[in-house]
Design goal:
It is built from two helices and eight strands. By secondary structure, it is of the alpha+beta class. Among the domains are: about 45 residues, no CATH class; about 90 residues, no CATH class. Helix 1 runs antiparallel to helix 2. The chain is rod-shaped.
């Protein structure tokens, strides 16, 4: 049997240590006492479990632990590239959740059709209203092969200019890499390795090219002719 304010209130506990006020709302809760509004457990009439509203500090505050209110989500716009907006734009808007602004009124006239020549393509340059023909990006293979041919000629002259005294000073150097396959050339022995190592390094610039076609080469021998190493047909008498 339970009495108002007695020893067994609605929650089965007294109303605190400050007197027997006529209330059985929450078990062992004290108004201004040392506990929370909801007592220490659900069984003792607790409204909110072990939670305190300004008491000595239950395990779950009304607002939760510090920082439990949530954190700002990481922006997903870090890797977004915004499209170009014409300089003639009359109205630019930025939606609250959008990564980029948009132009509601470009102020541009109707763009004419663009017919671009080979080696160019249609592209709208930032700030322009209409597309125009611009040069295609350089082809990596073609650029690598052009560079290779220019540097090869310079290396052949550089390493072949040291000269020779007799044919034993000369050797044949083969050429086989991603940029070029060619019959052997004759170079002085001390510089031959430099020629091939430089060409092999340049060959990496032709990694995107189709493999060079195989070729047939006649048998050759290296000889010293007039102080320069040359490749001679081995069948010549």
């Amino acid at each position: 049997m339970s009495t108002t304010g007695g020893e067994g209130g609605a929650g089965g506990s007294s109303l605190g240590h400050g007197g027997t006020l006529p209330s059985d709302t929450g078990g062992s809760s004290a108004v201004g006492g040392d506990s929370s509004v909801g007592g220490s457990s659900a069984g003792s009439g607790a409204v909110g479990g072990d939670s305190s509203v300004g008491g000595s500090g239950g395990s779950n505050d009304k607002g939760g632990d510090a920082g439990s209110s949530g954190s700002r989500p990481v922006s997903a716009c870090g890797n977004v590239t915004c499209p170009a907006i014409p300089t003639s734009c009359k109205r630019i808007v930025q939606e609250p959740d959008a990564c980029c602004p948009t132009c509601l009124d470009t102020g541009c006239d109707v763009c004419p059709a663009v017919d671009c020549a080979e080696g160019t393509h249609s592209e709208t340059v930032p700030g322009d209203c209409c597309p125009s023909c611009v040069a295609d990006p350089p082809d990596a293979c073609a650029t690598g092969q052009t560079t290779y041919a220019d540097v090869r000629a310079a290396l052949l002259e550089k390493y072949g200019s040291s000269g020779c005294s007799n044919s034993s000073d000369c050797t044949l150097v083969s050429e086989y890499n991603a940029c070029n396959v060619a019959c052997a050339v004759a170079l002085p022995v001390p510089t031959a390795v430099n020629f091939t190592s430089n060409l092999d390094a340049l060959g990496k610039d032709c990694a995107t090219c189709p493999a060079p076609a195989e070729i047939d080469c006649e048998a050759q021998v290296a000889a010293c002719v007039n102080g320069r190493c040359v490749a001679l047909d081995a069948t010549d008498k």
